[in-house]
Design brief:
This protein has 3 domains: about 55 residues; about 200 residues, Endonuclease Chain A (Endonuclease, Chain A, 2-Layer Sandwich), CATH 3.30.870; about 160 residues, 2-Layer Sandwich (Endonuclease, Chain A). The protein is globular. It has 18 helices and 17 strands. An 8-stranded mixed β-sheet has the order 9-16-15-14-10-11-12-17, with helices on both faces. About 45% of the residues lie in helices and about 15% in strands. Helix 12 links the parallel strand 10 and strand 11. The protein has about 475 residues and is an alpha/beta fold.
């Protein structure tokens, strides 16, 4: 019997070694960013069995068989739709500035989506302004409303939005809402879905979370886009979820969330509508490709309203927003100002920011002083010393959880949308960013960023260097996991 147990033990050890070897080879042959591969190998070796199990669940970008098949069938019709945008009068590549043209070339070549002019933009920088504007537009809606959000949290003005949508549906407006199942869990457990569906509103859970599907699809893959389209005429996108900050995470100890949204009219609305239609079809199989924009341009057109829509995530070209960020920073000649709630840059982004500062460009990064993710907060701090040494200025915002995701380059070109500066946003989730070539709008965003900086404490290099050794150890520990956060 003792010999039997010895044989059983050796067989178990061999099978465990075989499992570790197989997963290790899979990690290596995926040829991802080196830091991501090393982080996964560390987890697999340090946590017996559990590390392998975690990799199977979260280690690879698996959208699920049904969604992947739908996306594959969708490529051609959507590619044809985007290609026809080049015939729109709003496609004026010769009017682009030197900052916008390389980004347009990158997105046209990789995404097939051209930048379009003939738009109007309004920067809305407070929850009350955003939600009141949205409610007014919903009340004026005549035909259709499409929405998608990562989080819908009941309470306050968010409930007024829900009431306005119910009223719109009852007067015959076609309303479709796509919400991430994990982010909007509180909403789906409330009474609102039943009320809305009873009024005729279509509500779909994106990427439903279920233990039964854990081996069929990556569970932490999330629908992180925020898009509203009303009557194919007005669109909103930006960092704000469908929440009233006065009622959202009030016990988290980080203050109210600070967000912005961009209200857009013009041909770019149809492009945002097509991204929402893509997400809806991937989830439901129903096709609602919008009509092409009219692109009726004013008699005097310049590049002051050129917008490039850049979606990313499964089904989109790899790293497209990451590439756009790098390109924008490398083009900077005078200044780069970045605001982000979650700051865990890739190695390439880190080098780009350091390189910009070292060649004399003014680089400012504004992040929340307190974060709702402890792991992200400690991992973020691990980059401070390297950036401060290179001459980058880091500002810790005191007025709440700064959730605005924005980049302003040289005061005349900007990126604004849903993307955090972390690996999850840049490589995993469904995201959307606007590259805006509009001096007036960019100046408004720049002024807002300066208000954030005025309400921040700068990180002093000497004081930071003298922080407790325990803090440094915590930072380095979480830094090892930063490629996965």
């Amino acid at each position: 019997m003792e010999q039997f147990y010895q044989v059983l033990t050796w067989v178990g050890v061999f099978l465990y070694w075989l499992m570790i070897a197989a997963v290790t080879m899979r990690v290596v042959f995926k040829r991802r960013v080196v830091g991501v591969s090393l982080a996964w190998l560390m987890i697999i070796y340090i946590i017996p069995i559990g590390g392998v199990f975690a990799y199977i669940l979260f280690g690879e970008l698996n959208l699920g068989k049904k969604r992947a098949e739908r996306a594959k069938d969708m490529f051609q019709p959507y590619e044809d739709w985007f290609q026809r945008l080049t015939d729109c009068p709003g496609h004026q590549p010769h009017l682009m500035t030197e900052h916008a043209r390389p980004i347009n070339d990158l997105c046209e070549n990789r995404l097939g989506i051209p930048a379009l002019s003939g738009n109007t933009l309004s920067l809305q920088d407070s929850p009350q302004t955003i939600l009141r504007s949205l409610i007014d537009d919903i009340h004026d809606a005549q035909h259709a409303i499409q929405m998608e959000f990562y989080i819908w949290h009941p309470g306050g003005l968010a409930d007024e939005v829900a009431t306005a949508l119910i009223m719109a549906a009852k007067r015959g407006v076609n309303v479709r809402i796509l919400l991430d199942a994990a982010g909007s869990m509180r909403f789906f457990r409330s009474h609102w879905p039943k009320l809305m569906r009873h009024a005729g509103i279509q509500i779909v859970e994106a990427l439903a979370v279920s233990p039964l599907r854990m081996f069929l699809r990556r569970l932490d893959l999330r629908q992180h886009r925020k898009i509203v389209v009303i009557d194919s005429h007005i669109a909103y996108t930006g960092s704000m979820n469908m929440v009233d900050p006065a009622y959202f995470k009030t016990d988290a100890g980080v203050g109210q969330w600070i967000d912005v949204m961009v209200r857009v009219t013009g041909p770019t609305v149809a492009v945002l509508n097509s991204i929402q239609a893509w997400d809806w079809e991937v989830e439901t199989g129903e096709r609602h490709l919008p009509t092409l924009p009219d692109c009726q341009l004013p008699s005097s057109v310049d590049a002051a309203d050129m917008i490039q829509v850049i979606p990313s995530g499964p089904g989109m070209p790899d790293e497209i927003i990451h590439q756009t960020l790098l390109l924008s920073i490398y083009q900077a000649r005078e200044s780069v100002v970045i605001t982000t709630p979650y700051f865990i840059p890739s190695e390439n982004l880190l080098h780009a920011m350091k390189g910009a500062a070292q060649r004399g460009v003014s680089v400012d990064i504004v992040i929340p002083d307190k974060n709702d993710s402890l792991m992200v907060e400690w991992a973020s701090r691990s980059f401070f010393s390297e950036l401060l040494t290179a001459g980058v200025r880091i500002h810790r915002f005191q007025g709440g959880l700064l959730h605005t995701k924005s980049v302003v380059i040289d005061g005349n070109h900007c990126l604004i949308g849903t993307v955090n500066l972390d690996m999850r946003s840049l490589w995993l989730n469904f995201e959307v960013t606007l590259a805006v070539d509009n001096a007036e709008f960019t100046q408004q965003l720049s002024w807002l960023q300066q208000q954030y900086i005025a309400d921040s404490h700068p990180v002093d290099a000497k004081t930071w260097h003298d922080r407790p050794i325990a803090n440094k150890l915590f930072e380095q520990f979480f830094y090892m996991f930063s490629p996965l956060l």
